[in-house]
Amino acid sequence: MPQAVMVSRHPIQGFQALKAYLQENIIGQEYLVDRMLIALLSDGHILVEGAPGLAKTRAINRLSKGIEADFHRVQFTPDLLPADLTGTEIYRPQDGSFKFQRGPLFHNLVLADEINRSPAKVQSALLEAMAERQITVGHSTYPLPELFMVMATQNPIEQEGTYPLPEAQLDRFLLYIKIGYPEAEHEREILRLARAEAGRASNDSQGEFQPIRESLILTARQEVLNLYMQDNLERYLLEIVLATRNPGRYGEDLAHWLQYGASPRATIALDRVSRARAWLDGRDYVSPEDIQALAADVLRHRIILSYEAEAEGITPDRFIDEMMSRIAVP
Asked: Is it the case that residue 276 has pLDDT exceeding 70?
């Protein structure tokens, strides 16, 4: 049973308590928990790839309980319509007027489950919400909440009947996270937690945890942006992204593997998430390890491999690892 945790008014203490709360309720997915918090601090969206049953829905649901935010899950299917996300105009026969009924995208945290199972029109509706933080229906535009994060999932097992996300939409995701099965000991803890929750009268395992206020999250985001980064580390960060556009500088094999490099969004994303990781670690400066730890999550969906690389079985992660090993660390 989770112990009572009182959240301090100070942002870093509040996030440390939130992290502890999430780790108590999401067993064996520390990597996912860290990336969710980093995305929350960086004001970005995440794409998670993993097999069914790996606590993806539970993770963002528990995150919504750990902060003062509302949550909505949308199961993406081939027959989903854009209006199922954005909302629609409802006719009122009593006075002959129309009233806008808001859709699930107007929640703070949205889980787009199996996003690649819906056609392009639905994906484009989600793209506007992610990129512009607004919804357009007819001639009217509606702003989304200031605290707004999309966590989309993809199932790597079955690709039949899916609609692969275009590169332009993939680029809108701050991080692309791949998760796997938990270790045996973690799975034993999951079993015990599930048994304990099933035995309670209430299915809420939040206990006495005090959710973090939205104002504290916004304050934390500002602190993250103000974190110190040395000039040589900034050049290192830029070099990593630029290397994806001109990989031949680091070897003919890398140039042979890559067709297109990462966009400037990758530079902005790597800067923000590196700062967020350092801040979560309780530091007021960014280290090379912060950049290195998140480079693959930022880049793997923003680079396009050549046909030759795919034929050789080269993956984006393999390319990124090889590229990073050849760039001098300050």
From this structure: yes
